[in-house]
Every structure is written in structure tokens, then in C-alpha cells.
Design goal:
Helices cover about 80% and strands about 0% of the residues. It is mainly α.
Length: about 110
């Protein structure tokens, strides 16, 4: 009796994991990022920065990049330097850090 119950539970968990994987793939295939202007993007990045200042490497980089595109070069430099001071924890952080270095070196 106990073994049958465990098997059913394991099968159900596997099935649920499989459904979640299919959902993730569906979302990644058919959903797109919203289009917005640099002003709107900068506003959203600054809100995120207010909630958690200097926490996200990618947020600092993208805030600096948006400031640069809008012509606010002093703010852009400050945010890009803040991004360059962060340590990369994951592979994604390492990629963003390399992009930030390239953008900083080519822009300033």
C-alpha cells in the first residue's frame, strides 16, 4: 500500500515538472518583450534602482546605457562605473560585465 502511494506521487511530480517545462518553452517561443522608448525604459530602471540600490549588475548597466542614449553622459558614466564595480556571480553576470566594459571603453 505504501509503495503504490509513493509511485503515484512520483509520477505526479514528474508530470507536473514536464508540464512546467512545456509552459516555459511555449512562453519563450510566443512571447515578446514590450516595445518602449528610452525614456520609459530609464524610468523603469530608476524605479528598480530605488527599490534595491546597487544590487543588480544588469540593472546598473542598462540604466547607464539608457542614460547615454538620452544624452545624460554624466549619469551614464556613474551607473556604468557602478556596474563595473560589481562582482559577477553567475555566467549571465559575467556576460553583462563584459558588455559593460566594452560599452564603457567605447563610449568614454
Amino acid at each position: 500500500w505504501y509503495q503504490r502511494r509513493v509511485r503515484v506521487r512520483v509520477r505526479k511530480q514528474w508530470y507536473q515538472r514536464r508540464v512546467r517545462g512545456v509552459q516555459r518553452n511555449f512562453i519563450s517561443l510566443f512571447c515578446t518583450f514590450p516595445n518602449c522608448s528610452y525614456e520609459q525604459a530609464l524610468e523603469l530602471f530608476l524605479r528598480a534602482e530605488q527599490l534595491a540600490p546597487a544590487v543588480s549588475l544588469s540593472n546598473s548597466y542598462l540604466t547607464g546605457k539608457a542614460c547615454f542614449r538620452l544624452g545624460r553622459k554624466t549619469e551614464a558614466k556613474r551607473f556604468l562605473e557602478q556596474a563595473l564595480d560589481c562582482h559577477a556571480v553567475t555566467k549571465e553576470d559575467q556576460i553583462v560585465l563584459e558588455e559593460a566594459k566594452r560599452f564603457y571603453n567605447s563610449s568614454f
